[in-house]
């Protein structure tokens, strides 16, 4: 590690979350207090007693700013009865207006008042005074039900028409809440982005590590949280250990394959004195072992070579490989398709396509290739007309030195590293390769590479 870990201490993730929650709580309380101290109390709809009487008599006044009153005939009086200092006076006045006793007048409050602030009553009285009127008149605040019993036992009931939307004071509060939410949204976005950015950084680093253990290390920043910086250091240490592990194993395989050439050379000299009938078989076995060693060394060399990623167009690369194989007598064909550009290693991808095309021609007689897009990936498919493979061997064919051909003939069986190289290159680019039997016969090698 470098000295980037020295310097001022960084804030912890817990401290940043606590700060975000604290700011949100303080801001919400500040907005609430501002609304309480600065906004006027809500003034609900109120109705003069004279307006209620007119509605009972069928002459309901027209209302522009308040909900209209409606008259209904019901079988039972409304409940619960309204309580208050002026309620008995209102009942007595209504009883005199209609010539009935007070017990035949019921004033009900179906729900609680929206406010209990005394300033509301002063506001209502001021409005009534501005509207005109020499004497002080009783009034009722919605919602209410006023019922007067008819001679037949039923009740005439007057009530404000139920509203379908929010009252003005409710709309005002909702508007304030929306504005306060919009004001806090940028702060919340900045905090959330800063908190989520390290997790996206880890996801990208893990994806790069899966492609190449020699990829760039995560930067250690003093601006990050203490927990994130500790995780970055652990991730970088893990990447270093994985890189050393892969390099050590690769070097060991290369050394073993290289050292095997010496005893094979001695064996080649010693079989000169062997009988003629066994000398040819022994020489063929030694040739095959040397070919396997050469393939293993090539595989190790390619695996240890630093990846050189450049933008390349897959259709052009695949066409060039097919053209080269066609010049040597192979039956290969590429379908015209979309131009698909990816970041890749041209040498490794050329070897991938070559191995798949050679397998298709060797076991199926011919090879047909295509390139197209699918979601966020580039798909390369190479088909043949061969017998296909059993489903249980669909994964085993990618194992190093595995061959479905039981013989060790170089003409039929090969070495067994071709498909292992194909999968290694595909996964090194962040993709994969699978073998799928076609419904009409033959095999399709499907390579998926991220765009």
How would you describe this protein?
The chain has eleven helices and 13 strands. With 451 residues, the protein is an alpha+beta fold. The strands form four sheets. A five-stranded mixed β-sheet has the order 8-10-11-13-12. It has a four-stranded antiparallel β-sheet with strand order 2-6-5-3, with helices on one face. Strands 1-4 form a two-stranded antiparallel sheet. The two termini are 33 Å apart.
Helix and strand topology:
Elements: H1 13-38, E1 46-48, H2 49-56, E2 69-74, H3 87-98, E3 105-108, H4 118-131, E4 139-141, E5 145-149, E6 155-160, H5 168-211, H6 226-259, H7 261-270, H8 276-304, E7 310-313, H9 314-327, E8 332-334, E9 341-344, H10 346-364, E10 367-374, E11 377-383, H11 418-428, E12 432-437, E13 443-450
Parallel strand pairs: 8-10
Antiparallel strand pairs: 1-4, 2-6, 3-5, 5-6, 7-9, 10-11, 11-13, 12-13
Helix pairs in contact: 1-5, 6-8, 7-8, 9-10, 10-11
Q: Mean pLDDT, rounded to whole units? A: 76
For this structure, what is the CATH homologous superfamily of the domain at 307-450? Histidine kinase-like ATPase, C-terminal domain
Biggest beta sheet attributes: 5 strands, mixed
- Quote the beta fraction: 5-15%
Give a short overview.
The protein has 451 residues and is α+β, with helices and mostly antiparallel strands. The chain is built from 11 helices and 13 strands.
